[in-house]
Amino acid sequence: MLGTASTAWRSRVWASDPAPGSDPYWSDVVMLINAADGTVADRSTVNSAVSIRQSPGGVASTTQTLFRDHSVYNQTQSRYQVAAAAARQCPGEYTLEWWLWSDAVASFFNCPMCPASTSSDAGWTNASCGSGKSGRMSFEFTQSYTNYYVSAASVHNSTWHHVAQVRGSDNVIRFYFNGVQAAASRSSSATMDFGDYDWIIGGYLNDSGDNQWIGYMDDIRLTKGVARYTSTFTPPTAAFPMS
Questions:
Q1: Do you find a cis peptide bond into 56, omega within 30 degrees of 0?
Q2: Which of 2, 110, 109 is nearest to 48 (CA)?
Q3: Contacts of 131 by beta carbon, 8 Å cutoff, 6+ apart
């Protein structure tokens, strides 16, 4: 199942759930995609619709789980789309983070997320490169054709990994892999138009076979106006709060 989050899931409590109201930045969370209680939805303050972009589905899975009883599953030729929302546009600080798991390597690259646009200000393509890069995690800002490599080793190793992209008050975008800050960074004061375009979960916007993520994702969170991480940190040990 997938769609816009309802309030029914709030009655369900997982052992790993933080206490209600435990996120001091909850009002700034403008996207939070997870598979809570078997339904993939945006459970942020924005509550954007999530739809199937490309079938087959297999949206919520119990095969590989992180903190709750389901995760967001992407199988061959499956992509999901989060509807555009102006509230997600980020002119300043932001933190975009998520968890991923995979045991497969595509011939070119796997793309967990990207904007449904090739505009220079749309955002970035988050890729796990296969050909020549041994499955390392990288970011490529749209139309820049410059890869910022984040992980030293392949992410396709049947392990959950935490990935984050953070812009601070100094307009420097920093990348983190499992809490460790990568050497790569990018200076940019351009508005990151996360809100002007739909966002694709599980593949690149051209829907081709090589450009897809085969695996699992969880707790895809965008916090607007807040740089949650400014140096090396310990990755979260519980599900992200949903209030």
A1: yes
A2: 2
A3: 107, 108, 109
Output b/e per residue, 13-51; b: 16+ Cβ within 10 A. eeeebbeeeebeebebbbbbbbbbbebbbbbbebbbbbe
Tell me the per-residue pLDDT of 32-79, one tens digit each, with 9 for 90 and over: 999 887 888 899 999 999 887 766 655 778 888 899 888 888 776 677
Model pTM score: 0.89
**In a 10 Å sphere around its CB, with 0-12 CB exposed, 13-18 middle and 19+ buried, how is residue 173 labelled?**
buried
**Alpha-carbon distance 87 to 168, whole Å?**
19
Q: Measured between alpha carbons, how far is 199 from 84 in angstroms, rounded to an integer? A: 7
Pairing mode, if any, of strands 161-167 and 147-149?
A: unpaired
* Residue 223 structure tokens: 């916090």
For residue 90, the one-letter residue type is C
pLDDT of residue 1: 47
- Nearest in space to 148 (alpha carbons), one of 178, 187, 121, 119: 187
Closest CA to 83 of 202, 200, 241, 198: 198
Beta strands in 48-204 (DSSP E): 50-54, 60-61, 71-74, 79-82, 94-101, 109-115, 124-129, 136-141, 147-149, 161-167, 172-177, 180-187, 199-201
For residues 92, 36, 39, 63, the Cα torsion angle rounded to the nearest 10 degrees is 110
Asked if residues 83 and 51 have their Cβ atoms less than 8 Å apart, the reply is yes
Architecture of domain 2-224: Sandwich (2.60)
